[in-house]
Amino acid sequence: MTVREAVKILEGEFFCGEEWADTEVHSACGADLMSDVMAFVKEQVLLLTGLVNPQVIRTAELMDIKVIVFVRGKRPTQDMIDMTRDAQIILAGTKCPMYIACGKLYEAGLRSGGTRKI
């Protein structure tokens, strides 16, 4: 599934990186705890979160996550948008709550990537 398709399914909008929206994603992770995100491993993952702060972008950079979608209508600050553009991370948002957003993507065929093997 492409990021563009995922954002359309979520009836979302792009804040940054729409020019990279044809990027493929193979799995999704929904979390508000960045420690949980760090336990998640798959490549080409889409991160759904309700946490809107710079730590989300730093975690995405560290874990090589290329797509962040904020849920519940949350909106990033301009500083966060600038950070994601510099890191070439796609930033989008949806009004859907996390549970519904995850369900819509799952129903469309996007699966969980599992957890990191220790």
TrEMBL record:
Organism from which the protein derives: Gracilinema caldarium (strain ATCC 51460 / DSM 7334 / H1) (Treponema caldarium)
Q: Which InterPro entries match?
A: Ser_kin/Pase_Hpr-like_N_sf
Stored Gene3D superfamilies: HprK N-terminal domain-like
Q: Which SUPFAM superfamilies match?
A: HprK N-terminal domain-like
User: What is its quaternary makeup?
Assistant: Homohexamer.
Q: What is this protein called?
A: DRTGG domain-containing protein
